[in-house]
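Worked example (supplementary).
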Amino acid sequence: MNKPMIKFVQGNEACVEGALYAGIDFYAGYPITPSTEVAELLAAKLPQKGGKFIQMEDEIASMCAIIGASLTGHKVMTATSGPGFSLKQEALGYACMAEIPCVVVNVQRGGPSTGNPTHVSQGDVNQARWGTHGDHSIIALTASNHQDVFAMTVDAFNLAETYRTPVILLLDEAVGHMREKLVVPEKGAIPLVDRLRTDVGKGVDYHPYLPREDGRLPMSDFGGDHRYNVTGLFHDMWGFPSNNPTVVNGLLHHLVDKIENNIQAITRYKEHFLDGAEYVLVSYGSSARSAIHLAKNRRARGERIGVLELQSLWPFPEALIRDRCRGAKAVVVVEMNMGQVMRHVKAAVDDPERVFLANRIDGKLITPTDIKKLLRVIQGMGV
Amino acid sequence: MSVKDYLRERYFPHMWCPGCGHGTVLNSLLRAVEALGLNKNDIVMTSGIGCSARISGYVDFHSLHTIHGRALTFATGVKFSKPELKLLVPMGDGDALAIGGNHFIHAARRNIDMTAIVMNNRIYGMTGGQFSPLSGLGKKATTAPYLTIDNDFDVVELSRAAGASFVARTTTYHALEAVDLLKRAIDHKGFSVVEILSQCPTHFGRKNKEGDAVNMLELYKANTAKIGSKALKENPALLARGIFVDENRPEYCEEYEKIIQRATGGKK
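After joint prediction of all chains, the assembly is encoded as:
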């Protein structure tokens, strides 16, 4: 398959294509709308390449199984939606603490609770950040079209390996179920990050939790020469439980710093018509499609409207937003929740009074007209 | 090689109370592993949370100390992704059959090749003595000051019904018998369960007036009998020990190899 392949697919299928491109060889999951196609497709495709697919008894088991499989050296993923994402949170925190690379896809639907299973929402943005208990840091990516779903899925695997951390891919029902064109690039077109394995030899003391100078921690596969302990307790450089205050303090700082100190390297975004924009729309996921559509139309009529499309939501790209929104007459955050990203944009910009929310929370995709109506009010041009 | 070679002495002394049965389980388990001549690099021990779960820190295998109730699901990920590994999964009674009950029956149903060891002390020890689904009726615990009204599971019957292809039971009094049963369980291809009654003098024994560790061990001797023994025939009220299920049934990882064959048209 060494030439680009053109497909007409659902967003969930684009995610699967991205995962396969990135080298996934283990998937554990549980059926849940609107993410189920990810499991169905991988049930068919993984064994074709000698990989493993397992349908577990619940969401928690799926999350735990991928962590176990990552420790044997595999590239792993699970996919879910709101209720399942809630159930996975404890094990997700375990993966943060034990520093296990894995990818968790959340195809968002309306919540809370069972909510609106077949309709779009972006209500899990803050859950992705703080769903599991305790201080920690996390990487969460998102995408508004299938080409980007593919690219962000590959990125999710790469970042998980680079930072030894779970990476959350926040898709939404609209992107997940919509069909559009996808070009699967030829092998090698997008660089892949493979597991960093230790070069410490057999019989030499290997420290699984002693970061190198560059902050990365080389791993050793279960079944290999190095036998070490993995735990969700605070632990020392051997992975053995410790409540020594220096160890606890050092580990928590490491877990947060390894991500927060690399915001620039992790941040992914796109700019649409931002040059000289008086009105900046900040958006992501399927909402960004409507924001881009509006900006394109209004630009054609001479209005200076642009879109800053976020493709990474956590760690929050505060400096980027401050910079791109500087001097704007108004900033409108376009999202399908009660303002989860808007609050962070307000905190980031110089003039929070000029940040507004264009949202929809009724299970319908936000439209360009919805955004335009709010813009007109901001511009003093009536309702 | 001696049993000591299987321990991480760096992490001793262990954190179990004086008189706790869990050290005896560890002893029997290491003797079983030694007798089987297994390579330490081929063994992964996963455990959950609780007194029992700390066992994984003390052994010189690949060890995965996870979250409460989920040891079997992590073990499934390890085993299914690398079937050549041997999986040992020690769990406490609450860990295995309260919070982890669903995983327990499903791992048994799949008949995935691993050994579940239920270290049954009939109490939540680490949190200070609350009743568990294996405490049984009329027991005293910190959350049952007026005695329990909760029925208990029979680990053997539950495992059998869920599809485990090897099921055995013994006690810490019968430590040599435990070595033998663990050997057979580890050697068995498929999901094996060994329930080992393990005394908790600190919480269960004290609250239920079963005396100290020695008294509790003597109760195991007095209240149990081998399957097929005269003692058991004469007194069916005794708790049976021994092997209850030992069958050859299709193992999950091997069956998945057939899926790979079907998916690749035999090219893989």
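Two points are worth noting when inspecting this output. Chain B has eleven helices and ten strands. The domain at 3-264 of chain B is CATH 3.40.50.970 (Rossmann fold).
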